[in-house]
Amino acid sequence: MRRPVRRVAIVGAGPAGSALAFYLGRAGLRVALYDRKSRPPIVVGESLIPATIPFLRELGIEDEVRRYSTLKNGATFVLDSDEVRSFRFADVRKARTRYAYNVPRDLFDASLAKVAERSGAQIVRQTAKLERVPGSDRVTLSAESLAACEDFLGGPPDLIVEAGGRARLLPNLLDLPSEAGRRKDTALFAHCGGVPQIVEGDVHIDRLERGWSWRIPLPGKMSVGLVIDGDVIKKFGESSAEQYDNYLQHDPVIARWGSAPRRLTPVLKFSAYQLVTTRAVGDGWVLLGDSFGFVDPVFSSGLLLAFDSAKRLSTALLSGGGPVSLRAYENHVRSHLRVWHRTIEHFYNGRFFTLFRVGQAVQTTTPGRLVNFHLQKHIPRVITGEGSTSRYSAWLVDFMCRRGLLENDPVALAIR
Ligand SMILES: Cc1cc2nc3c(=O)[nH]c(=O)nc-3n(C[C@H](O)[C@H](O)[C@H](O)COP(=O)(O)OP(=O)(O)OC[C@H]3O[C@@H](n4cnc5c(N)ncnc54)[C@H](O)[C@@H]3O)c2cc1C
User: Fold this and answer.
1) For 395-410, how does the pLDDT look when each residue is reduced to its tens digit (9 = 90+)?
2) Residue 36 near ligand 1, beta carbon < 6 Å
3) pLDDT in tens, 218-236
4) Of the CATH numbers 3.50.50.60, 3.30.420.40, 3.30.1490.480, 3.30.160.620, which one belongs to the domain with range 7-69+104-178+275-340?
5) How far is ligand 1, taken at its centre, from the CA of residue 166, in Å?
6) Which residues of 104-124 are buried (b: 16+ CB within 10 A; e: fewer)?
7) Among candidates 181, 212, 148, which has minimal Cα distance to 276?
8) What is this structure's pTM?
9) How far is CA 185 from the centre of its chain?
10) Is-contact 274 296, C-beta < 8 A?
């Protein structure tokens, strides 16, 4: 008979890996969490949505996070020079949580690793190395990596969880195929000073001449990201820094911010990030977080997916980690990723905000008001993450974006 999983090695102490280590450590499993020492100067994934807050409470870090973060009460979308839409989380009907935070990721990740450690997990401060067992789709820790955790675990791990993020260590090692999304954007990101906000604390999404930008207010500075077609942004310079600085100067929408962003950090570049691995569970290994799949930066779904999938995986492992429970974990995460993927597509093709325009236009009739009332319960709940695992809410967003636009052409609000 198969032994239940008791000893787990988790590669990567990002939000997904640390949260899993907390859940498993708390339940008494032996957990080694590999935390690579070197980090980039700044890390993406700074804007949370309300559905992440119950996870912060469960992890016991909300008070600590509040102290070093900015309070985020909503999202402001600059769709055109004369169309700005601000969503208040407090206005979402039947919302369970009415706020979120924008977090400096260095401090946030440190808080998470600390609670993982307090729960009993051992932090192994080194880069884990994985090796493929020849002729199979099994992986092991290299001798050096195993030596760092074997005493604590009391033997080799029963399971390796790869939570190394976009490094995609295990999918690369095993040549696991991935499904790539349709977008071929490049995201460039830095922290800046002198960047204004329309609504304090909100994440700001601006529809640019080409692509879109984010403004995420952090204490004393602003995270500014540009998400632009890879071929277009290349024309703005050789290096990432040139492309970023030149595009910020070039775009007429950014010119309307009123003051030029003053860059405070190097520029980080991301491309080909819309990837979902087609297989997330194998013989002695599981993928978690971005290593399993990531959809897109818009709507800030990444950290919710990281926490939600860590919790699901812990439930599967605490029930013994058998194939049925691991399959249920994989199916859940895959369908959650699909919901975000479909919703995000409707941001890019212009349907999402066209639907809001239509909603306002039909407010003058009683049937229109009734439909709108119903939609306003479900659609914002998908965006706050509280409804992104509800089949009905997710279906309704997709259905209305496809069929509910009446005669309106969504191209006018598409991302160019
Ligand atoms: C451009 C962009 C913008 C984004 N903006 C947002 C946002 O605003 N809000 C949001 O919610 N999400 C956002 N995301 C997504 C978010 O960053 C990720 O979904 C989230 O960080 C995933 O967490 P993770 O733990 O899976 O991976 P990560 O956060 O990447 O953590 C993985 C960790 O593993 C470590 N690691 C890697 N290899 C090894 C190894 N061999 N040994 C030891 N450690 C290792 C890494 O150093 C890292 O610390 C964005 C993503 C992109 C690309």
Assistant:
1) 999 999 999 999 899 9
2) yes
3) 999 999 999 999 999 999 9
4) 3.50.50.60
5) 7
6) bbeebbebbbbbbbebbbbbb
7) 181
8) 0.97
9) 16
10) yes
